[in-house]
Amino acid sequence: MAIEPTKAIVPPRGVKTDYPLIDSDPYGTQFQHIKRVFGYARASDYAVGGAAAAASPLAFWLMEKFSPSHVGKGGFAPVMRLATAIGILGGVHIFYQRSINRFYGFTENTREVEKDMREMVDKVKKGEPLYGKSQLSEYLQGVAARNSRYTGLFAHVIPWFNVVNHNQHGIDTAKYYQQAERELEAERLGK
């Protein structure tokens, strides 16, 4: 006799933050999730990420300048390529982490909350699903959601991506529908 999994959604554990939660699972490989995290990034995120990316090759160049390794012709170029690759990887990680921290509500996110509300209300008005369509059952979507919540916090150790669209992002989506209803009512009365 097979045990039937329950269809109840396991609510995410609430994390106390000073700012509102936008999404507890923005660290997916689905294009729409990555697009949101990059799209919501601020200019300061690009600046900090770029500076971090430049730090590694700059440090190796300075070390070679002040304390030459004397490796001979062609010995320094591979090291610089490796330092540049490491710098770029680190810079992208820092950039992505700064943006994700706003989704989690760990840092000030007023601009992102407003942008999220606008984006989701527009989706509601168009009749689109908020977080994409999924071919999986509710149970498997829940499994995917539980396995990937807040994984962006540990991405520097284990990059654990979520490749499943699901509707369990740790927030009450009713606010989007209520706002869309208010806007549609205001448009109807205004015309």
UniProtKB/TrEMBL annotation:
Transmembrane segment boundaries: 43-63, 75-96
Alphabetic keyword roster: Membrane, Transmembrane, Transmembrane helix
Domain NADH-ubiquinone oxidoreductase 21kDa subunit C-terminal fungi: from-to ranges: 117-188
InterPro entries: NADH-Q_oxidrdct_subunit, NADH-UbQ_OxRdtase_su21_C_fun, NADH-UbQ_OxRdtase_su21_N
The keyword Phosphoprotein appears for this protein: no
Domain NADH-ubiquinone oxidoreductase 21kDa subunit N-terminal: 17-108
Protein name per its UniProtKB record: NADH-ubiquinone oxidoreductase 21kDa subunit N-terminal domain-containing protein
Organism: Talaromyces amestolkiae
